[in-house]
Amino acid sequence: MQGVRQRKGGLNSMAKPVNKKRTEMPAQDPKVRAHNFNEVATGYTEADARAEADRCLQCKKRNCTEGCPVEVPIPEFIAAVQKGDYPTAFRTIMSKNLLPAICGRVCPQETQCESFCTLGKVKGSEPVAIGRLERYVADWGREHAPPDHTACPMTNGIKVAVIGAGPAGLTCAGELARLGYEVTVFEAFHKLGGVLTYGIPEFRLPKAIVQKEVQNLTCVGVKFALNQVMGKALDVNDLMKKGYKAVFVGVGAGLPVFMKIPGVELNGVLSANEFLTRVNLMKAYKFPEADTMVDIGKHVAVVGGGNVAMDSARTALRLGGDEVMVIYRRSEEEMPARREEYHHAVEEGIKFLFLTNPTKILGNADGHVNGIEVQSMTLGEPDRSGRRRPVVVPGSEKTIPVDLVIMAIGTQANPLFTKVTPGLKLNEWGYIEVNDRMQSSLPYLFAGGDIVTGSATVISAMAAGRKAAASMHEYLQSLKGKL
Ligand code: FAD
Ligand code: SF4
Fold it and tell me: Are residues 356 and 217 in the same domain?
Protein backbone atom coordinates (compact mmCIF):
# COMPACT_ATOMS: atom_id res chain seq x y z
CA MET A 1 0.00 0.00 0.00
CA GLN A 2 1.38 3.42 -0.85
CA GLY A 3 0.73 6.92 0.38
CA VAL A 4 2.10 10.41 -0.11
CA ARG A 5 5.61 11.10 0.98
CA GLN A 6 6.09 14.07 3.24
CA ARG A 7 9.40 15.92 3.32
CA LYS A 8 10.84 18.52 5.68
CA GLY A 9 7.72 18.68 7.80
CA GLY A 10 5.29 19.80 5.05
CA LEU A 11 2.54 17.25 4.55
CA ASN A 12 2.31 17.20 0.75
CA SER A 13 5.45 19.06 -0.18
CA MET A 14 6.85 16.14 -2.14
CA ALA A 15 4.86 13.46 -3.87
CA LYS A 16 7.12 10.43 -3.67
CA PRO A 17 5.21 7.27 -2.74
CA VAL A 18 5.85 5.74 0.65
CA ASN A 19 4.55 2.47 2.04
CA LYS A 20 1.74 3.06 4.49
CA LYS A 21 2.43 -0.22 6.26
CA ARG A 22 5.61 -0.83 8.19
CA THR A 23 7.93 -3.66 7.22
CA GLU A 24 6.86 -6.81 9.11
CA MET A 25 9.18 -8.17 11.79
CA PRO A 26 10.09 -11.78 10.95
CA ALA A 27 9.21 -14.10 13.83
CA GLN A 28 9.28 -17.78 14.75
CA ASP A 29 6.08 -19.71 14.07
CA PRO A 30 3.91 -19.60 17.25
CA LYS A 31 3.54 -23.41 17.33
CA VAL A 32 7.31 -23.85 17.21
CA ARG A 33 8.32 -21.03 19.54
CA ALA A 34 5.85 -22.13 22.25
CA HIS A 35 8.30 -24.96 22.93
CA ASN A 36 11.65 -23.19 22.83
CA PHE A 37 13.42 -20.29 24.53
CA ASN A 38 14.89 -18.84 21.31
CA GLU A 39 14.05 -15.26 20.47
CA VAL A 40 10.49 -14.85 19.17
CA ALA A 41 11.24 -11.96 16.80
CA THR A 42 14.18 -12.91 14.61
CA GLY A 43 15.10 -9.39 13.43
CA TYR A 44 15.14 -7.46 10.16
CA THR A 45 17.33 -8.49 7.24
CA GLU A 46 19.35 -5.71 5.63
CA ALA A 47 16.72 -5.45 2.87
CA ASP A 48 13.96 -5.10 5.51
CA ALA A 49 15.92 -2.40 7.33
CA ARG A 50 16.59 -0.43 4.15
CA ALA A 51 12.93 -0.70 3.11
CA GLU A 52 11.72 0.47 6.52
CA ALA A 53 14.30 3.28 6.76
CA ASP A 54 13.14 4.45 3.36
CA ARG A 55 9.69 5.16 4.82
CA CYS A 56 11.16 7.86 7.08
CA LEU A 57 10.29 11.36 5.91
CA GLN A 58 13.37 12.99 7.47
CA CYS A 59 11.16 15.63 9.05
CA LYS A 60 12.66 19.00 9.92
CA LYS A 61 10.73 19.04 13.19
CA ARG A 62 12.11 15.99 15.01
CA ASN A 63 8.95 14.80 16.75
CA CYS A 64 10.29 11.28 17.14
CA THR A 65 13.39 12.41 19.04
CA GLU A 66 11.20 14.50 21.34
CA GLY A 67 9.34 11.29 22.19
CA CYS A 68 12.54 9.46 23.14
CA PRO A 69 13.35 9.73 26.87
CA VAL A 70 17.12 9.58 26.13
CA GLU A 71 16.88 11.79 23.01
CA VAL A 72 18.40 9.47 20.42
CA PRO A 73 18.87 11.50 17.18
CA ILE A 74 16.38 9.30 15.33
CA PRO A 75 16.18 11.00 11.89
CA GLU A 76 19.99 11.11 11.72
CA PHE A 77 20.47 7.42 12.45
CA ILE A 78 17.68 6.47 10.05
CA ALA A 79 19.25 8.68 7.33
CA ALA A 80 22.46 6.70 7.74
CA VAL A 81 20.52 3.41 7.37
CA GLN A 82 18.92 4.79 4.19
CA LYS A 83 22.46 5.13 2.79
CA GLY A 84 23.62 1.77 4.14
CA ASP A 85 26.12 3.62 6.35
CA TYR A 86 25.74 1.42 9.44
CA PRO A 87 28.89 2.59 11.28
CA THR A 88 27.46 6.15 11.32
CA ALA A 89 24.01 4.88 12.30
CA PHE A 90 25.54 2.90 15.19
CA ARG A 91 27.70 5.79 16.43
CA THR A 92 24.73 8.14 16.27
CA ILE A 93 22.60 5.89 18.48
CA MET A 94 25.47 5.17 20.90
CA SER A 95 26.04 8.91 21.43
CA LYS A 96 22.86 8.87 23.52
CA ASN A 97 22.09 5.25 24.34
CA LEU A 98 24.66 2.71 25.53
CA LEU A 99 22.15 -0.16 25.53
CA PRO A 100 20.50 0.04 22.08
CA ALA A 101 20.10 -3.69 21.35
CA ILE A 102 18.19 -3.96 24.63
CA CYS A 103 16.02 -0.91 23.98
CA GLY A 104 15.38 -1.97 20.38
CA ARG A 105 13.87 -5.18 21.78
CA VAL A 106 11.95 -4.19 24.89
CA CYS A 107 11.11 -0.47 24.80
CA PRO A 108 7.41 0.31 24.42
CA GLN A 109 8.14 2.44 21.32
CA GLU A 110 4.44 2.50 20.46
CA THR A 111 3.87 4.88 23.39
CA GLN A 112 7.15 6.78 22.95
CA CYS A 113 9.08 7.78 19.80
CA GLU A 114 6.73 5.98 17.40
CA SER A 115 3.65 7.63 18.87
CA PHE A 116 5.21 10.99 17.94
CA CYS A 117 6.20 9.95 14.39
CA THR A 118 4.79 12.32 11.76
CA LEU A 119 4.16 9.47 9.33
CA GLY A 120 1.91 7.80 11.90
CA LYS A 121 -0.27 10.95 11.92
CA VAL A 122 -1.04 10.59 8.20
CA LYS A 123 -4.42 8.89 7.73
CA GLY A 124 -4.04 5.16 7.18
CA SER A 125 -0.26 5.20 7.71
CA GLU A 126 1.69 3.36 10.36
CA PRO A 127 4.60 5.14 12.07
CA VAL A 128 8.16 4.25 11.10
CA ALA A 129 9.24 1.12 13.00
CA ILE A 130 11.94 3.02 14.89
CA GLY A 131 12.49 0.30 17.50
CA ARG A 132 13.02 -2.40 14.88
CA LEU A 133 15.53 -0.19 13.07
CA GLU A 134 17.33 0.56 16.34
CA ARG A 135 17.56 -3.17 16.99
CA TYR A 136 18.92 -3.81 13.47
CA VAL A 137 21.63 -1.16 13.83
CA ALA A 138 22.54 -2.23 17.38
CA ASP A 139 22.89 -5.86 16.28
CA TRP A 140 25.03 -4.75 13.34
CA GLY A 141 27.20 -2.77 15.76
CA ARG A 142 27.56 -5.68 18.17
CA GLU A 143 28.83 -7.88 15.37
CA HIS A 144 30.91 -5.39 13.39
CA ALA A 145 31.96 -2.38 15.47
CA PRO A 146 34.99 -2.82 17.75
CA PRO A 147 34.55 -1.66 21.38
CA ASP A 148 35.33 2.03 21.60
CA HIS A 149 38.07 2.31 24.25
CA THR A 150 38.81 5.87 23.15
CA ALA A 151 35.51 6.88 24.75
CA CYS A 152 37.21 6.46 28.13
CA PRO A 153 38.76 9.80 29.18
CA MET A 154 41.59 10.33 31.71
CA THR A 155 40.23 9.77 35.20
CA ASN A 156 39.78 12.82 37.45
CA GLY A 157 40.45 10.69 40.55
CA ILE A 158 37.02 11.32 42.12
CA LYS A 159 35.35 8.10 43.29
CA VAL A 160 31.62 7.57 42.81
CA ALA A 161 29.56 4.53 43.88
CA VAL A 162 26.54 3.22 41.99
CA ILE A 163 24.29 0.74 43.80
CA GLY A 164 22.38 -1.65 41.56
CA ALA A 165 23.33 -2.78 38.04
CA GLY A 166 19.93 -2.39 36.36
CA PRO A 167 19.36 0.01 33.46
CA ALA A 168 19.28 3.06 35.80
CA GLY A 169 22.57 2.22 37.57
CA LEU A 170 24.35 1.07 34.42
CA THR A 171 23.42 4.21 32.48
CA CYS A 172 24.40 6.49 35.35
CA ALA A 173 27.72 4.64 35.70
CA GLY A 174 28.46 4.86 31.96
CA GLU A 175 27.73 8.59 31.80
CA LEU A 176 29.84 9.36 34.90
CA ALA A 177 32.76 7.31 33.57
CA ARG A 178 32.55 9.21 30.28
CA LEU A 179 32.91 12.40 32.36
CA GLY A 180 36.10 11.03 33.92
CA TYR A 181 34.90 9.76 37.32
CA GLU A 182 36.18 6.54 38.91
CA VAL A 183 32.93 4.61 39.04
CA THR A 184 32.29 1.33 40.87
CA VAL A 185 28.93 -0.42 40.50
CA PHE A 186 27.91 -2.58 43.51
CA GLU A 187 25.46 -5.33 42.53
CA ALA A 188 23.72 -7.87 44.79
CA PHE A 189 23.55 -10.64 42.16
CA HIS A 190 26.37 -12.46 40.38
CA LYS A 191 25.26 -11.02 37.01
CA LEU A 192 24.76 -7.48 35.76
CA GLY A 193 21.61 -6.13 34.15
CA GLY A 194 18.92 -6.10 36.88
CA VAL A 195 15.50 -7.00 35.46
CA LEU A 196 17.08 -7.25 31.99
CA THR A 197 18.91 -10.32 33.24
CA TYR A 198 16.66 -11.89 35.89
CA GLY A 199 13.20 -10.69 34.81
CA ILE A 200 12.69 -10.38 31.05
CA PRO A 201 12.82 -13.87 29.52
CA GLU A 202 15.40 -15.15 27.08
CA PHE A 203 12.83 -15.43 24.27
CA ARG A 204 12.25 -11.66 24.40
CA LEU A 205 15.75 -10.53 25.35
CA PRO A 206 18.63 -13.00 24.97
CA LYS A 207 20.97 -12.80 27.94
CA ALA A 208 24.08 -12.97 25.73
CA ILE A 209 22.96 -9.66 24.21
CA VAL A 210 22.48 -8.08 27.63
CA GLN A 211 25.93 -9.18 28.81
CA LYS A 212 27.60 -8.07 25.57
CA GLU A 213 25.98 -4.66 25.71
CA VAL A 214 26.88 -4.24 29.37
CA GLN A 215 30.51 -4.88 28.36
CA ASN A 216 30.39 -1.51 26.57
CA LEU A 217 30.49 0.00 30.04
CA THR A 218 33.74 -1.69 30.98
CA CYS A 219 35.15 -0.07 27.84
CA VAL A 220 34.41 3.34 29.29
CA GLY A 221 36.20 2.36 32.51
CA VAL A 222 33.38 1.34 34.89
CA LYS A 223 34.37 -1.21 37.57
CA PHE A 224 31.96 -3.79 38.96
CA ALA A 225 31.70 -5.37 42.43
CA LEU A 226 29.33 -8.35 42.17
CA ASN A 227 27.61 -10.33 44.96
CA GLN A 228 27.49 -7.19 47.13
CA VAL A 229 24.14 -6.82 48.88
CA MET A 230 24.47 -3.20 49.87
CA GLY A 231 22.93 -2.42 53.23
CA LYS A 232 24.27 -5.82 54.37
CA ALA A 233 27.80 -5.94 52.88
CA LEU A 234 28.44 -2.19 53.13
CA ASP A 235 26.26 0.77 54.05
CA VAL A 236 26.46 4.36 52.93
CA ASN A 237 28.82 5.35 55.79
CA ASP A 238 31.23 2.56 54.77
CA LEU A 239 31.22 3.96 51.23
CA MET A 240 32.01 7.47 52.48
CA LYS A 241 34.88 6.08 54.63
CA LYS A 242 36.21 4.32 51.52
CA GLY A 243 36.48 7.70 49.79
CA TYR A 244 33.37 7.72 47.58
CA LYS A 245 32.22 11.32 47.17
CA ALA A 246 28.75 10.66 45.76
CA VAL A 247 26.38 7.71 45.50
CA PHE A 248 23.69 6.79 42.96
CA VAL A 249 21.02 4.36 44.17
CA GLY A 250 19.23 2.33 41.47
CA VAL A 251 18.09 -0.73 43.42
CA GLY A 252 14.76 -1.14 41.63
CA ALA A 253 11.39 -2.23 42.98
CA GLY A 254 11.71 -5.98 43.14
CA LEU A 255 9.91 -6.78 46.39
CA PRO A 256 7.08 -9.19 45.46
CA VAL A 257 3.44 -8.59 46.39
CA PHE A 258 1.07 -11.50 47.15
CA MET A 259 -2.72 -11.49 47.28
CA LYS A 260 -4.04 -11.69 50.82
CA ILE A 261 -6.16 -14.81 50.27
CA PRO A 262 -6.17 -18.21 52.00
CA GLY A 263 -3.65 -20.67 50.57
CA VAL A 264 -0.89 -18.28 49.38
CA GLU A 265 1.49 -20.06 51.77
CA LEU A 266 1.09 -23.41 49.93
CA ASN A 267 3.91 -25.06 48.02
CA GLY A 268 3.43 -24.25 44.36
CA VAL A 269 2.57 -20.57 44.87
CA LEU A 270 5.42 -18.41 43.56
CA SER A 271 5.88 -14.70 42.98
CA ALA A 272 6.56 -13.89 39.33
CA ASN A 273 9.86 -12.46 40.49
CA GLU A 274 11.04 -15.72 42.03
CA PHE A 275 9.71 -17.78 39.11
CA LEU A 276 11.38 -15.64 36.46
CA THR A 277 14.62 -15.33 38.45
CA ARG A 278 14.84 -19.12 38.79
CA VAL A 279 14.30 -19.52 35.06
CA ASN A 280 16.32 -16.59 33.67
CA LEU A 281 19.16 -16.02 36.11
CA MET A 282 19.50 -19.56 37.44
CA LYS A 283 18.72 -21.15 34.04
CA ALA A 284 15.96 -23.50 35.27
CA TYR A 285 14.97 -23.99 31.62
CA LYS A 286 18.24 -25.88 31.19
CA PHE A 287 17.55 -28.28 34.11
CA PRO A 288 19.19 -30.78 34.77
CA GLU A 289 22.20 -29.17 33.03
CA ALA A 290 21.58 -26.25 35.44
CA ASP A 291 21.02 -27.06 39.15
CA THR A 292 17.86 -24.96 39.62
CA MET A 293 14.49 -26.39 38.58
CA VAL A 294 10.85 -25.31 38.62
CA ASP A 295 8.14 -27.96 38.99
CA ILE A 296 5.52 -26.74 36.55
CA GLY A 297 3.02 -29.59 36.73
CA LYS A 298 0.33 -29.58 34.03
CA HIS A 299 -1.94 -26.64 34.76
CA VAL A 300 -0.55 -23.21 35.58
CA ALA A 301 -2.46 -20.11 36.69
CA VAL A 302 -0.81 -16.70 36.40
CA VAL A 303 -2.57 -13.93 38.30
CA GLY A 304 -2.24 -10.40 36.83
CA GLY A 305 -2.54 -8.58 33.51
CA GLY A 306 0.74 -6.72 32.98
CA ASN A 307 3.93 -7.50 31.06
CA VAL A 308 5.22 -9.53 33.99
CA ALA A 309 2.13 -11.77 33.81
CA MET A 310 2.64 -12.24 30.03
CA ASP A 311 6.32 -13.12 30.57
CA SER A 312 5.46 -15.58 33.35
CA ALA A 313 2.71 -17.31 31.37
CA ARG A 314 4.79 -17.64 28.21
CA THR A 315 7.73 -18.94 30.23
CA ALA A 316 5.54 -21.54 31.98
CA LEU A 317 4.24 -22.69 28.59
CA ARG A 318 7.78 -23.17 27.31
CA LEU A 319 8.68 -25.15 30.43
CA GLY A 320 6.03 -27.70 29.46
CA GLY A 321 2.74 -26.52 31.00
CA ASP A 322 -0.16 -28.29 29.21
CA GLU A 323 -2.56 -25.51 30.01
CA VAL A 324 -1.42 -22.04 31.06
CA MET A 325 -4.05 -19.47 31.95
CA VAL A 326 -3.85 -15.80 32.88
CA ILE A 327 -6.43 -14.74 35.46
CA TYR A 328 -7.18 -11.00 35.30
CA ARG A 329 -9.88 -9.22 37.28
CA ARG A 330 -10.68 -6.55 34.69
CA SER A 331 -11.43 -6.89 30.97
CA GLU A 332 -9.11 -7.24 27.98
CA GLU A 333 -9.43 -3.52 27.32
CA GLU A 334 -8.01 -2.51 30.72
CA MET A 335 -5.16 -5.00 30.64
CA PRO A 336 -1.90 -3.02 31.02
CA ALA A 337 0.34 -5.48 29.10
CA ARG A 338 1.84 -4.31 25.81
CA ARG A 339 -0.54 -5.33 23.00
CA GLU A 340 2.28 -7.02 21.12
CA GLU A 341 3.11 -9.26 24.10
CA TYR A 342 -0.57 -10.07 24.66
CA HIS A 343 -1.05 -11.04 20.99
CA HIS A 344 2.08 -13.18 21.07
CA ALA A 345 0.74 -14.93 24.18
CA VAL A 346 -2.64 -15.60 22.51
CA GLU A 347 -0.93 -16.92 19.35
CA GLU A 348 1.12 -19.29 21.49
CA GLY A 349 -1.98 -20.74 23.15
CA ILE A 350 -2.17 -18.99 26.53
CA LYS A 351 -5.76 -18.88 27.84
CA PHE A 352 -7.15 -15.65 29.28
CA LEU A 353 -9.79 -15.58 32.01
CA PHE A 354 -10.90 -11.95 32.06
CA LEU A 355 -13.17 -10.45 34.73
CA THR A 356 -12.08 -13.23 37.06
CA ASN A 357 -10.46 -12.91 40.48
CA PRO A 358 -8.96 -15.59 42.78
CA THR A 359 -10.51 -15.92 46.22
CA LYS A 360 -8.71 -18.97 47.60
CA ILE A 361 -5.86 -21.31 46.69
CA LEU A 362 -6.54 -24.94 47.49
CA GLY A 363 -4.00 -27.60 48.47
CA ASN A 364 -3.67 -31.35 48.95
CA ALA A 365 -2.72 -33.16 52.19
CA ASP A 366 1.00 -32.58 51.43
CA GLY A 367 0.47 -28.83 51.39
CA HIS A 368 0.87 -28.51 47.61
CA VAL A 369 -1.44 -26.47 45.38
CA ASN A 370 -4.11 -28.46 43.56
CA GLY A 371 -6.69 -25.84 42.70
CA ILE A 372 -7.70 -22.20 42.67
CA GLU A 373 -11.11 -20.81 43.56
CA VAL A 374 -12.13 -17.81 41.47
CA GLN A 375 -15.14 -15.55 41.22
CA SER A 376 -16.50 -13.56 38.29
CA MET A 377 -16.34 -9.79 38.22
CA THR A 378 -18.16 -7.06 36.38
CA LEU A 379 -16.99 -3.49 35.75
CA GLY A 380 -18.35 -0.65 37.86
CA GLU A 381 -17.49 3.06 38.04
CA PRO A 382 -13.93 4.26 37.25
CA ASP A 383 -11.52 4.18 40.23
CA ARG A 384 -8.61 6.52 41.06
CA SER A 385 -6.56 5.04 38.19
CA GLY A 386 -9.32 6.03 35.75
CA ARG A 387 -10.04 2.38 34.94
CA ARG A 388 -13.45 0.89 35.71
CA ARG A 389 -13.50 -0.78 39.11
CA PRO A 390 -14.04 -4.56 39.13
CA VAL A 391 -17.09 -5.54 41.18
CA VAL A 392 -17.82 -9.07 42.45
CA VAL A 393 -20.68 -11.06 40.88
CA PRO A 394 -22.25 -12.73 43.96
CA GLY A 395 -22.47 -16.53 43.90
CA SER A 396 -20.14 -16.89 40.89
CA GLU A 397 -17.40 -18.88 42.67
CA LYS A 398 -15.91 -21.89 40.88
CA THR A 399 -12.81 -24.05 41.30
CA ILE A 400 -10.20 -24.67 38.63
CA PRO A 401 -7.62 -27.48 39.03
CA VAL A 402 -4.05 -26.07 38.92
CA ASP A 403 -0.58 -27.31 39.95
CA LEU A 404 1.24 -23.97 40.06
CA VAL A 405 0.08 -20.42 40.82
CA ILE A 406 2.29 -17.49 39.82
CA MET A 407 1.46 -14.12 41.38
CA ALA A 408 2.21 -11.26 38.98
CA ILE A 409 0.21 -8.50 40.63
CA GLY A 410 3.03 -5.97 41.07
CA THR A 411 6.07 -5.28 43.19
CA GLN A 412 7.17 -2.81 45.84
CA ALA A 413 10.26 -0.75 46.66
CA ASN A 414 13.33 -2.79 47.51
CA PRO A 415 14.09 -1.79 51.15
CA LEU A 416 17.44 -3.52 51.82
CA PHE A 417 19.59 -0.46 51.27
CA THR A 418 17.15 2.36 51.95
CA LYS A 419 16.13 1.13 55.43
CA VAL A 420 19.72 1.28 56.72
CA THR A 421 20.45 4.76 55.33
CA PRO A 422 19.77 7.32 58.10
CA GLY A 423 18.31 10.65 56.95
CA LEU A 424 17.19 9.30 53.56
CA LYS A 425 13.65 10.55 52.97
CA LEU A 426 11.23 7.96 51.57
CA ASN A 427 7.61 8.41 50.54
CA GLU A 428 4.76 6.49 52.19
CA TRP A 429 5.34 3.46 49.94
CA GLY A 430 9.09 3.30 50.63
CA TYR A 431 10.30 4.90 47.37
CA ILE A 432 13.17 7.41 47.56
CA GLU A 433 12.09 11.06 47.36
CA VAL A 434 14.23 13.10 44.96
CA ASN A 435 14.10 16.66 43.62
CA ASP A 436 14.02 17.47 39.90
CA ARG A 437 17.80 16.89 39.80
CA MET A 438 17.38 13.32 41.14
CA GLN A 439 19.02 14.41 44.43
CA SER A 440 17.69 12.90 47.67
CA SER A 441 17.43 14.43 51.16
CA LEU A 442 21.13 13.48 51.54
CA PRO A 443 22.97 15.92 49.22
CA TYR A 444 25.59 13.37 48.12
CA LEU A 445 23.00 10.65 47.39
CA PHE A 446 21.13 10.62 44.07
CA ALA A 447 18.58 8.04 42.95
CA GLY A 448 16.58 7.00 39.90
CA GLY A 449 14.68 4.22 38.15
CA ASP A 450 12.05 2.02 39.76
CA ILE A 451 13.22 2.82 43.32
CA VAL A 452 11.99 6.38 42.72
CA THR A 453 9.03 5.93 40.35
CA GLY A 454 7.81 2.43 41.18
CA SER A 455 7.78 -0.19 38.41
CA ALA A 456 8.14 1.63 35.09
CA THR A 457 10.18 1.01 31.93
CA VAL A 458 13.76 0.30 30.93
CA ILE A 459 14.08 3.55 29.03
CA SER A 460 12.63 5.69 31.83
CA ALA A 461 15.16 4.11 34.22
CA MET A 462 17.94 4.87 31.73
CA ALA A 463 16.75 8.46 31.34
CA ALA A 464 16.77 8.86 35.14
CA GLY A 465 20.30 7.44 35.35
CA ARG A 466 21.45 9.86 32.69
CA LYS A 467 19.85 12.86 34.35
CA ALA A 468 21.27 11.88 37.73
CA ALA A 469 24.78 11.57 36.25
CA ALA A 470 24.58 15.16 34.94
CA SER A 471 23.38 16.42 38.35
CA MET A 472 26.06 14.44 40.19
CA HIS A 473 28.70 15.98 37.93
CA GLU A 474 27.36 19.45 38.72
CA TYR A 475 27.29 18.64 42.46
CA LEU A 476 30.85 17.24 42.48
CA GLN A 477 32.21 20.14 40.43
CA SER A 478 30.64 22.56 42.91
CA LEU A 479 32.70 20.86 45.65
CA LYS A 480 35.98 21.27 43.76
CA GLY A 481 38.77 22.25 46.13
CA LYS A 482 36.89 20.69 49.06
CA LEU A 483 37.21 17.08 47.85
P1 FAD B 1 16.25 -3.01 38.20
O2 FAD B 1 16.27 -3.39 36.77
O3 FAD B 1 15.30 -3.69 39.10
O4 FAD B 1 17.72 -3.16 38.75
C5 FAD B 1 18.01 -2.98 40.11
C6 FAD B 1 19.31 -3.70 40.43
O7 FAD B 1 19.68 -3.40 41.76
C8 FAD B 1 19.21 -5.22 40.34
O9 FAD B 1 20.30 -5.73 39.61
C10 FAD B 1 19.24 -5.67 41.79
O11 FAD B 1 19.82 -6.96 41.95
C12 FAD B 1 20.13 -4.59 42.40
N13 FAD B 1 19.93 -4.43 43.84
C14 FAD B 1 18.78 -4.41 44.55
N15 FAD B 1 19.04 -4.23 45.86
C16 FAD B 1 20.38 -4.15 45.98
C17 FAD B 1 21.27 -3.97 47.08
N18 FAD B 1 20.80 -3.83 48.33
N19 FAD B 1 22.61 -3.96 46.83
C20 FAD B 1 23.09 -4.09 45.56
N21 FAD B 1 22.30 -4.25 44.49
C22 FAD B 1 20.96 -4.26 44.69
N23 FAD B 1 10.26 -2.48 30.88
C24 FAD B 1 10.26 -2.21 29.56
O25 FAD B 1 10.58 -1.07 29.19
N26 FAD B 1 9.94 -3.14 28.62
C27 FAD B 1 9.63 -4.42 28.97
O28 FAD B 1 9.36 -5.22 28.10
C29 FAD B 1 9.64 -4.76 30.35
N30 FAD B 1 9.37 -6.02 30.74
C31 FAD B 1 9.48 -6.35 32.07
C32 FAD B 1 9.31 -7.68 32.44
C33 FAD B 1 9.47 -8.05 33.76
C34 FAD B 1 9.30 -9.50 34.14
C35 FAD B 1 9.74 -7.06 34.75
C36 FAD B 1 9.89 -7.44 36.21
C37 FAD B 1 9.90 -5.74 34.39
C38 FAD B 1 9.78 -5.37 33.04
N39 FAD B 1 9.97 -4.05 32.63
C40 FAD B 1 9.96 -3.75 31.29
C41 FAD B 1 10.28 -2.99 33.60
C42 FAD B 1 11.77 -2.65 33.61
O43 FAD B 1 12.53 -3.82 33.47
C44 FAD B 1 12.15 -1.88 34.86
O45 FAD B 1 11.35 -0.71 34.91
C46 FAD B 1 13.63 -1.49 34.87
O47 FAD B 1 14.45 -2.64 34.80
C48 FAD B 1 13.98 -0.69 36.11
O49 FAD B 1 15.35 -0.46 36.13
P50 FAD B 1 16.14 -0.16 37.50
O51 FAD B 1 17.55 0.01 37.09
O52 FAD B 1 15.47 0.94 38.23
O53 FAD B 1 15.94 -1.44 38.40
FE1 SF4 C 1 9.69 12.01 10.81
FE2 SF4 C 1 8.89 9.63 11.86
FE3 SF4 C 1 11.18 9.81 10.39
FE4 SF4 C 1 11.05 10.87 12.85
S5 SF4 C 1 10.89 8.68 12.31
S6 SF4 C 1 11.94 11.84 11.04
S7 SF4 C 1 8.94 11.67 12.92
S8 SF4 C 1 9.05 10.16 9.71
Answer: no
